[in-house]
Specification:
525 residues, alpha+beta, Nucleotidyltransferase, domain 5, Actin, Chain A, domain 4, Substrate Binding Domain Of DNAk, Chain A, domain 1, 3 domains, six-stranded mixed beta sheet, 12 helices, globular
């Protein structure tokens, strides 16, 4: 997408916190402070009366509001057709709600930096095509020209290499380094192994879980306190939305304090009764041990899939606020055999890397438009990145061994270097067939129902009187940002057939315009 006149920024659109960064004149990625003078903004939306929307309200403000007016962790719902919030008789989708967060970041930053036009927005590596498209839509609704979507670990690696003084340097020895990026945010998790030199970045393997993050650690504390409350007083505060909100806020605060303290006193109140307990770090680690084990299993799997030995790791990078938990660091020492790096700030590295990636794209396309020093622009132009796909891309076919069953036939396996194109020949299943209907799947399972259907691919207007078994070539392509396209050709007459992608999610131009208009009606505080 072409760059527009105005500032170019990088945005970390997080489950619990979000941040916006830009490069200064000397090329340093600076996280821009919001109206509260903080570098991170809570990804929480308070839908008030008369179109008054507050993004990132304080706990004190949230405690006096109707819980049904508060939207949290919407990132986990990105790409979902089934999730929406009804507000002023309108159905607000995850794309629109996320756009309100982006609008807040844009507003606050423009008060400091001036008009913002272009943005690179980050996503977890494990986001599929539907979630990536939804994220891109959110940026457009918020009034941003989204020039790219970048994977969070890739962004963090760019920030790490910059902070180490290596990024884009052609005047130093191009030694290849291997790092592991462990990204545990508020709501999502992934781990990635990257090889890089100052000018080339290459992802070897990645895996993760879009439904695992710090929120799940907090919920274990909520359950722990609630069950104690039930045993003592007979009432379950989780059944009351207001009480649940209060308990969650207290437990989130307790979780954060346990990263620094060995014991934290907690008092919770419900129906005239107060429960006061002391939660120890050991208690907390025991009740969340299975969650940490899930991240360990994934980390060990990715190391195995990357094909590198532990001894070959040069560094371990921590990304995401949840990596402040001491148990995370200790687990990684056991797995990787080394102390994780402290060179980058876990909450800021992703936004910083997105800003660097945005500047790289801008430098290559426009020359940087004078926002960054010429020497820095020349460094940025020399940087190239190569990712892998986080999900296999396949097609639903009839099982050759059992004509009554369907299977997922994988065309582009997981952890393939992208951009990548694969073409395979299939055949028509009946005489005089005029169209072929292909289901595009993301996932590794052989059962199509266990995969994600990301769209239909229809090959139309096949030549008349084609015999059964006539070949049709289907091509799938992953581009460098992880987006997917498809095409097809009927080979008997060697003529191109019409191809159409019908997405199961994502907004068309009419839907985007409608949401843009609606977003302009809401005053975001």
């Amino acid at each position: 997408m072409a760059f527009q006149e105005g500032l170019t920024v990088g945005i970390d659109l997080g489950t619990t916190y979000s941040a916006l960064a830009r490069l200064d004149h000397d090329g340093n990625p600076i996280v821009v402070k919001n109206a509260d003078e903080r570098t991170i903004t809570p990804s929480v939306i308070l839908l008030g009366d008369d179109g008054q929307v507050t993004v990132g309200p304080s706990y004190e403000r949230m405690s006096v509001e109707d819980p049904s007016h508060i939207v949290e962790a919407v990132k986990r719902q990105m790409g979902s057709q089934d999730y929406y919030v009804v507000y002023q008789d309108k159905k607000l989708t995850p794309e629109f709600l996320s756009a309100l967060i982006l609008k807040k970041l844009k507003q606050d930053s423009e008060a400091v930096c001036g008009p913002i036009a272009n943005a690179v927005i980050t996503v977890p590596y494990y986001f599929n095509d539907l979630r990536r498209k939804a994220t891109q839509d959110s940026g457009q609704i918020a009034g941003l020209n989204v020039v790219d979507i970048i994977n969070e670990p890739t962004a963090a690696t760019l920030a790490y290499a910059w902070i180490k003084g290596e990024l884009g340097r052609t005047d130093i020895e191009a030694n290849e380094r291997t790092i592991l990026v462990y990204d545990l945010g508020g709501g999502t998790f992934d781990v990635t192994v990257v090889k890089y030199t100052p000018t080339n970045f290459r992802v070897l393997a990645t895996d993760g879980d879009v439904m695992l993050g710090g929120l799940d650690w907090s919920r274990r504390l909520v359950d722990h306190l609630s069950e104690q409350f039930v045993r003592k007083y007979g009432d379950d505060p989780r059944q009351d939305p207001e009480a649940l909100l209060t308990f969650t806020q207290e437990c989130e605060d307790c979780k954060q304090q346990l990263s620094e303290k060995s014991q934290v006193p907690v008092s919770v109140y419900y129906k005239g009764n107060t429960l006061s307990v002391a939660v120890t770090r050991g208690d907390f680690e025991r009740m969340t041990a299975d969650l940490l084990q899930r991240t360990r299993d994934t980390t060990e799997l990715v190391l195995q899939q990357s094909g590198i030995e532990i001894s070959e790791l040069d560094d371990v990078i921590l990304v995401g606020g949840s990596t402040h938990m001491p148990s995370v660091r200790q687990m990684l020492i056991e797995v990787a055999g080394r102390e994780p790096s402290t060179d980058v700030k876990p909450e800021e590295a992703v936004a910083q890397g997105a800003a660097i990636h945005a500047a790289i794209l801008e430098a290559k396309e426009t020359g940087g438009q004078g926002q960054v020093a010429e020497a820095i622009i020349n460094r940025l132009k020399s940087v190239n990145t190569q990712d892998v796909n986080s999900h296999s891309l396949g097609v639903k076919l009839t099982d050759p061994a059992d004509k009554t069953k369907k299977i997922n036939h994988i065309m582009i396996p997981k952890n393939t270097n992208i951009p990548f194109t694969a073409s395979q020949r299939f055949v028509t299943t009946s005489d005089n067939q005029r169209r072929v209907h292909v289901y595009i799947l993301e996932g590794e399972a052989s059962d199509p129902d266990a995969c994600t259907l990301i769209g239909d691919f229809r090959v139309l207007d096949l030549p008349p009187n084609l015999p059964k078994g006539s070949p049709v070539e289907v091509s799938y392509k992953y581009d460098s940002s992880g987006r997917i396209t498809a095409s097809a050709k009927e080979l008997t007459t060697d003529k191109e057939a019409q191809a159409e992608i019908v997405r199961e999610s994502g907004l068309d131009s009419k839907g985007l315009d409608a949401f843009k208009t609606l977003a302009e009606q809401y005053h975001v505080e």
